[in-house]
Amino acid sequence: MARQTRAERRARRQEQTGAEPALAGAGGRGAKPPVRLAPEPPSRPERGRRATREERGGFVFGLQRFLVESWGELRKVEWPSQSHVIQGTVVVLIACVILGTFIYVADIASKYLVHNFLLR
């Protein structure tokens, strides 16, 4: 499920209430807006009681839901351009060469120290 834009959420709210969008300072004469109660959360199954296969939706339904939600999340991702990918690859390769060189020099130095000072 793709994420809704702010305009889509406002349009949906406007359709539900049937009113015009609220403006700051509108309403006049100090009238307070009506209080809307939050919807009741869905009831939870009792503790210790396991949901049946029908309540869970089954394996196929769960897999389908997972795939649909995964596809929706992938559509939200801002994918890098080719130049960004190349730039990131170059940075990683340079860092690997620098780190590899450091580890190689440290290995040679520690080998020299161990053979010439500790094993004598």
Radius of gyration: 31 Å
Number of separate helices: 4
Share in β-strands: under 5%
Q: Spell out the helices and strands N to C.
A: HHHH
Bin the helical content.
Answer: 55-70%
Question: Roughly how many Å apart are the termini?
Answer: 69 Å
**Class by SSE composition:** mainly alpha
Instruction: Report the biggest beta sheet as strand number plus sense, adding barrel if it closes.
Output: none
Shape: elongated
Q: What is the count of β-strands?
A: 0
Low-pLDDT runs: none
Indicate the mean pLDDT.
Answer: 82
In brief, what are we looking at here?
With 120 residues, the chain is mostly helical. The chain has four helices and no strands.
Write the layout of secondary structure elements.
Elements: H1 6-17, H2 53-56, H3 58-76, H4 82-118
Task: Describe what you observe in this structure.
This protein has 120 residues and is mostly helical. It has a domain at 85-120. It is 60% helix and 0% strand. The longest helix is centred in the C-terminal third of the chain and has 37 residues, at 82-118. The chain is elongated.
List keywords for this structure.
elongated; single chain; 4 helices; mainly alpha; 120 residues
